[in-house]
C-alpha cells in the first residue's frame, strides 16, 4: 500500500509524538513531504535537522509555499508534513544547486542521469529560485531520460517573490531543486493536470529578449504594454498579479503560460522561462467554467480507481480568484483519498510519453497506489459543484469576454493583416523607412535603413535623428520636421554620413503619424540619390555646358543672359554683350583635324577667362564662337579695354601637334539698353558687329550700330545669291597683263574673278570674296577659278603663245584644305598645261597661320613645277626671318607702296629694300598697281623684274585679252 498520514506542525515535541504514535521510524520506505508557509532559512534548517535526526532512514522533500493543502483543506502560512509509507516502492531523493552547473539545462541533464540509474517510475520536483529556468531544466531532463511521469511545483513565499527554499534530508537550496524518484514494479501512478487558459486581446511579438528578460514587445517597453492593457493596479501588485494574467507562448506546437516574476527598472520584465526574439505572446485568463467541468470529470474517473494517496500541486492564483471552487475541489479529492500538497509559483507536469512542461495557473496531481489491481468502488462519490452567484457573474463576464474576444479577434485579424502588409512593406522596402516620436527620436527603422547607414537597430532606436545630420543642415531638417508634424508632407534632399563616414545625398519624404486624430510622430522614407544626382548633373552638364571647354553652351548662356537682363532692368544698369569669333578657324580644323581644333578652342577659352573682369559670364555659343556678358564693366571705354585684353591674349602664339599657330579673333559688341532689350536681339546685334570686324580684316573690336543691321540684311541677301552663283554660271574671269620691265614683253596675266548678278549687277570682289571665305564657299569658287584659268591659258598657248604664264590667287581657306595639292594637279591634268606656267599667289597671313604645314604644301607645289608667289608683300605682320625658309619664286609688292612711289619719298626706300631682298634671295619681284610712267621708270631703275597695273592695262575680258595678244604678236613679229 501507499498510505499517507499528515500532521500540522506546531512544535518539535508534538511532531515527535506523532512520529512515535504512528511508529514511523520503523518503515524503511518512507517519503516525507514538508510544505511550509514559513519561508525562513533558519526555521527550515532547524526543522530539517530535527526530522533527519528522528527519521534517519526517511527521504525528506520539502519546499516553502504560497499556501498549503492539508487533507483537502487550504491553510495559509502553516507547515504541513505528509508521511507516505510504501511497502514495495523504493525512494531516492536529490538536491542540486544551480551554481554547480553551467545552466538549468545542464542541471536537468544531470538529474536525469541519476534517475536513469534508479529506473524511475515517477518523479516529484520542487525547483527553488527565480533564476532557475524551469523550461530549460525540464528540457534537460527530457533530453536524457524521456517518457517519465513528472509532477511537482515551484517553491513559493506567500506571494512575496523574495526568497524561496527547497530541501531534503541532505540540505537546503534557494537556487536549485529537490527531486524525489519513485521506483517500483507494483506502483500504480495516475497523473493529471488541469489548466484552461483562454487567449484574449492582440498578440505581441518579442522584439528584444535575453534569457528570461524581455526588453521590448512590438518595439515598446513591456511596462508600456502592461500599463495600457492591464492598468496601474496590475503593475503595482506585480509579480503576484502576474499569476492571474500571464502570457501564452506558442512553444513546440503547444501554448504554454509565461508568468511575470519581476518588473525591472528600465521597463523590462523578467519571466519564469526563456523567451526568444520573434516569439509571440498573448494575454490570457483562466476559463473557470472549463476548469470546473474538466475537474469534475477527472474526479469521477479518479474515484473509480480508488488511489491510496494523492499529491496535489496547485497554482496560488486559484485560491485567489476561484477560492470557493478550489476549496470544494480539494474536499472532493479528499473524499477519494488523502489529498495533500501546496500552492506553488508554477506547476510541473509530464504524462508518460509526453513532454515535460512548466504550465502554470493549473492543478496537477499524482495519484498513487501499490494495489496489485485497481478496484472499482461499489458506492461512488457524488461530485457536484453548486455555482455561486459570484461564479454566475464571472461566467457572464466570461461570455462577454468571449464575445468581445471574437470581436477583438476579428478586429485584430484585420489589424494584423494591415500590420503584415505594413510590416512587409516596411521590412522589404528597397527605400529606407523610419519613424520618430514628437521629439525627433527614432522609434523604428527597417532593414534597408540599417543596411544603408551601417547602424544596427539597437544603435539607432531612441537617438535623435538630428544627431546624424551635419551642423549646416540641422536648422533646415528641423524646419521640415515641424512642418510634417503640422500635417504637411515634406520633400527635401540632405547629405548624411554613414557609420563608416561615407557621405551620400539622400532624398527624404516626411509625413505625420496620426493616431486618434493626434500627431504622435513622423514617418520618414528615403533613398540614396547620390548616383542619380551625379547622372542629373552630368545630363545638366551635357545639356547646358560645352563638353570641350566646360563653358556654358548657347542654351545656358542665353538663360543666364535673360536673368542678367532682368536684374539690369530692376536696377537700371547697363550690360554689354560680346560675340567673339576666331578668325579663319576652319583652316586649323581642316589642316589638323577636329580633335586638335577642339584643343585649340579649349586653350583659347582658358586664355579669355584669364583676362576677364569681375562680373563676367563667358560661354561657347557654337563652333569657334564665344559669347560674353559684362555686367559690371559695361561702359564703352571699359568694354573696349576688356576686349583689347582678350584680343591680345588670343593673339599670342600657340602650339598644337608640334606646330606653332598665330590666331586672331573678331569681337562684336552690343549694349543694353541701347542696342536691344532682350537677349535674342542683343546676341544678334553683337553677331552683326562681329561680322563687321571680320569684314574689316579681323583682329579688331566693333560696336553695333543700326546701320550695321541694315548692312547685315543686305549681307544675308548677298550670301543667298552667292550660294547659287556658281551653279548659275554667274562668275567669269578677267585677265590683267604682266610685263617684263627689262624687255617690255608680255609674259603672262593674273586671273581675276568677277560676279555679274542678274539683279545686283556687277558685284565687287571686295564684297563677295570675304563672304565666300567666311561661309566656306571659297573652296568651290577657288577650284573653279583654278581650273578655268589653267584651261584658258593652255588655250592661248595653243594659239601660239607657248610661254604665256598664268597667276591665280589662292585663299587661305582653300590653301589649307587637305586636298589642295591634288586639286592643283587635277587642274593641270585637265587643261594639259605644263606646271611651270602656273603661279599660285598666297598672302603672308595664309602661310604664317601654320608655317610648317604651309612650307610642306609649298614645297610639294615646287616639286611638281608649280611656282609660288607671295602676294601683297610688305603688309604682313610676320617676321622676315620666315622668308628665307619659304620655297617661293616671286615676291609681289603690295600696291600701297607703289601708289605713292615718287622720287624723294619713303616708299622708294621700302620698295628698293624689297627688290634688293628679292635679288638676294634669288626670287623675282613683281610690282602691282602701277598707274604712272614715273612709277615704271623708278621700278626699272630699281631693277624690279615685273609689273602690272592700270598704266600697263586694266583687267580684260577673255575676248579683249585675246585681241590684245594678237596685236602684241603683230607688233613684235
From TrEMBL:
Under the heading CDD domains, the entry gives: EAL, GGDEF, PAS
Cite the InterPro entries for this sequence: Biofilm_reg_signaling, EAL_dom, EAL_sf, FIST_C, FIST_domain_N, GGDEF_dom, Nucleotide_cyclase, PAS
Origin superkingdom: Bacteria
Every PAS domain range: 418-488
- Domain GGDEF: residue ranges: 573-706
Q: Where is the EAL domain?
A: 715-969
> Which residues lie in coiled coils?
none
* NCBIfam families to which the protein is assigned, alphabetical: GGDEF, sensory_box
Q: What is this protein called?
A: Diguanylate cyclase/phosphodiesterase (GGDEF & EAL domains) with PAS/PAC sensor(S)
Which species does this protein come from? Cytobacillus firmus (Bacillus firmus)
Amino acid at each position: 500500500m501507499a498510505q499517507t498520514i499528515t500532521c500540522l506542525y506546531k512544535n518539535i515535541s508534538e511532531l515527535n509524538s506523532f512520529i512515535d504514535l504512528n511508529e514511523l521510524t520503523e518503515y524503511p520506505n518512507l517519503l516525507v513531504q514538508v510544505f511550509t508557509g514559513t519561508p525562513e532559512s533558519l526555521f527550515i534548517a532547524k526543522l530539517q535537522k530535527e526530522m533527519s535526526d528522528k527519521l534517519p532512514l526517511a527521504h525528506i522533500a520539502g519546499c516553502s509555499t504560497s499556501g498549503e493543502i492539508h487533507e483537502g483543506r487550504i491553510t495559509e502560512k502553516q507547515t504541513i508534513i505528509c508521511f507516505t509509507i510504501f511497502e514495495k516502492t523504493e525512494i531516492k531523493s536529490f538536491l542540486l544547486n544551480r551554481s554547480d552547473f553551467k545552466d538549468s539545462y545542464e542541471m536537468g541533464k544531470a538529474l536525469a542521469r541519476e534517475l536513469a540509474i534508479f529506473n524511475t517510475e515517477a518523479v516529484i520536483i520542487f525547483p527553488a529560485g527565480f533564476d532557475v529556468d524551469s523550461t530549460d531544466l525540464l528540457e534537460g531532463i527530457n533530453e536524457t531520460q524521456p517518457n517519465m511521469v513528472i509532477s511537482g511545483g515551484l517553491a513559493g513565499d506567500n506571494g512575496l517573490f523574495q526568497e524561496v527554499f527547497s530541501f531534503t534530508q541532505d540540505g537546503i537550496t534557494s537556487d536549485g531543486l529537490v527531486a524525489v524518484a519513485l521506483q517500483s514494479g507494483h506502483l500504480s501512478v495516475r497523473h493529471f493536470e488541469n489548466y484552461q487558459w483562454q487567449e484574449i486581446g492582440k498578440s505581441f511579438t518579442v522584439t528584444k529578449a535575453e534569457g528570461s528578460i524581455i526588453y521590448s514587445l512590438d518595439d515598446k517597453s513591456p511596462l508600456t504594454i502592461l500599463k495600457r492593457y492591464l492598468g496601474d493596479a496590475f503593475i503595482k501588485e506585480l509579480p503576484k498579479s502576474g499569476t492571474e494574467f500571464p502570457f501564452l507562448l506558442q512553444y513546440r506546437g503547444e501554448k504554454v503560460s509565461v508568468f511575470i516574476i519581476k518588473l525591472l527598472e528600465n521597463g523590462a520584465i523578467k519571466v519564469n522561462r526563456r523567451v526568444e526574439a520573434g516569439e509571440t505572446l498573448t494575454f490570457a485568463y483562466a476559463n473557470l467554467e472549463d476548469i470546473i467541468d474538466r475537474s469534475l470529470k477527472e474526479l469521477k474517473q479518479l474515484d473509480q480507481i480508488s488511489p491510496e494517496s494523492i499529491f496535489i500541486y496547485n497554482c496560488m492564483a486559484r485560491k485567489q480568484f476561484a477560492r470557493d471552487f478550489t476549496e470544494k475541489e480539494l474536499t472532493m479529492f479528499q473524499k477519494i483519498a488523502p489529498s495533500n500538497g501546496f500552492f506553488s509559483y508554477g506547476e510541473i507536469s509530464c504524462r508518460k510519453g509526453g513532454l515535460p512542461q512548466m504550465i502554470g495557473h493549473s492543478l496537477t496531481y499524482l495519484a498513487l497506489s501499490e494495489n496489485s489491481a485497481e478496484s472499482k468502488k461499489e458506492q461512488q462519490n457524488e461530485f457536484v459543484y453548486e455555482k455561486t452567484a459570484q461564479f454566475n457573474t464571472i461566467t457572464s463576464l466570461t461570455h462577454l469576454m468571449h464575445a468581445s474576444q471574437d470581436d477583438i479577434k476579428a478586429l485584430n485579424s484585420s489589424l494584423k493583416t494591415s500590420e503584415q502588409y505594413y510590416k512587409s512593406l516596411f521590412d522589404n522596402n528597397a527605400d529606407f523607412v523610419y519613424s520618430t516620436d514628437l521629439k525627433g527620436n527614432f522609434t523604428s527603422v527597417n532593414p534597408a535603413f540599417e543596411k544603408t547607414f551601417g547602424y544596427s537597430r539597437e544603435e539607432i532606436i531612441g537617438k535623435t535623428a538630428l544627431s546624424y545630420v551635419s551642423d549646416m543642415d540641422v536648422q533646415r531638417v528641423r524646419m521640415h520636421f515641424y512642418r510634417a508634424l503640422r500635417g504637411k508632407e515634406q520633400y527635401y534632399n540632405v547629405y548624411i554620413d554613414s557609420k563608416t563616414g561615407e557621405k551620400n545625398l539622400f532624398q527624404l519624404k516626411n509625413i505625420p503619424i496620426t493616431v486618434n486624430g493626434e500627431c504622435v510622430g513622423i514617418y520618414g522614407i528615403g533613398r540614396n540619390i547620390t548616383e542619380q544626382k551625379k547622372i542629373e548633373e552630368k545630363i545638366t552638364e551635357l545639356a547646358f555646358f560645352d563638353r570641350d571647354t566646360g563653358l556654358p553652351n548657347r542654351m545656358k548662356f542665353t538663360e543666364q543672359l535673360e536673368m542678367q537682363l532682368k536684374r539690369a532692368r530692376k536696377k537700371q544698369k547697363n550690360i554689354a554683350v560680346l560675340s567673339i569669333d576666331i578668325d579663319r578657324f576652319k583652316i586649323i580644323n581642316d589642316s589638323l583635324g577636329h580633335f586638335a581644333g577642339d584643343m585649340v578652342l579649349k586653350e583659347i577659352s582658358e586664355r579669355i577667362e584669364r583676362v576677364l573682369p569681375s562680373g563676367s559670364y563667358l560661354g561657347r555659343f557654337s563652333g569657334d564662337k564665344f559669347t560674353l556678358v559684362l555686367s559690371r564693366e559695361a561702359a564703352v571705354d571699359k568694354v573696349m579695354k576688356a576686349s583689347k585684353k582678350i584680343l591680345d591674349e588670343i593673339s599670342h602664339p600657340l602650339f598644337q601637334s608640334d606646330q606653332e599657330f598665330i590666331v586672331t579673333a573678331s569681337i562684336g559688341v552690343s549694349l543694353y539698353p541701347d542696342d536691344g532689350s532682350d537677349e535674342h536681339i542683343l546676341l544678334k546685334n553683337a553677331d552683326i558687329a562681329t561680322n563687321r570686324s571680320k569684314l574689316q580684316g579681323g583682329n579688331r573690336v566693333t560696336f553695333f550700330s543700326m546701320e550695321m543691321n541694315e548692312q547685315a540684311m543686305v549681307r544675308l541677301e548677298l550670301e543667298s545669291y552667292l550660294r547659287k552663283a556658281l551653279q548659275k554660271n554667274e562668275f567669269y574671269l578677267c585677265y590683267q597683263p604682266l610685263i617684263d620691265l627689262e624687255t617690255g614683253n608680255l609674259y603672262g596675266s593674273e586671273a581675276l574673278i568677277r560676279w555679274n548678278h542678274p539683279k545686283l549687277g556687277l558685284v565687287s570682289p571686295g564684297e563677295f570674296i570675304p563672304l565666300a571665305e567666311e561661309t566656306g564657299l571659297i573652296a568651290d569658287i577657288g577650284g573653279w577659278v583654278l581650273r578655268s584659268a589653267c584651261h584658258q591659258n593652255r588655250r592661248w598657248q595653243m594659239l601660239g603663245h607657248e610661254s604665256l604664264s598664268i597667276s591665280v590667287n589662292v585663299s587661305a581657306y582653300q590653301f589649307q584644305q587637305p586636298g589642295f595639292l591634288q586639286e592643283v594637279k587635277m587642274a593641270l591634268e585637265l587643261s594639259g598645261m605644263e606646271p611651270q606656267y602656273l603661279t599660285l599667289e598666297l598672302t603672308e597671313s595664309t602661310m604664317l597661320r601654320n608655317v610648317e604645314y604651309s612650307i610642306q604644301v609649298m614645297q610639294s607645289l615646287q616639286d611638281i613645277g608649280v611656282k609660288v608667289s607671295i602676294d601683297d608683300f610688305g603688309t604682313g605682320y610676320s617676321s622676315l626671318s620666315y622668308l628665307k625658309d619659304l620655297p617661293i619664286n616671286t615676291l609681289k609688292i603690295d600696291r600701297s607702296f607703289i601708289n605713292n612711289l615718287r622720287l624723294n619719298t619713303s616708299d622708294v626706300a621700302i620698295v628698293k629694300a624689297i627688290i634688293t631682298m628679292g635679288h638676294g634671295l634669288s626670287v623675282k619681284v613683281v610690282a602691282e598697281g602701277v598707274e604712272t610712267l614715273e612709277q615704271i621708270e623708278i621700278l626699272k631703275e630699281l631693277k624690279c623684274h615685273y609689273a602690272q597695273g592700270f598704266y600697263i592695262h586694266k583687267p580684260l575680258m577673255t575676248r579683249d585679252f585675246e585681241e590684245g595678244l594678237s596685236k602684241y604678236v603683230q607688233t613684235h613679229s
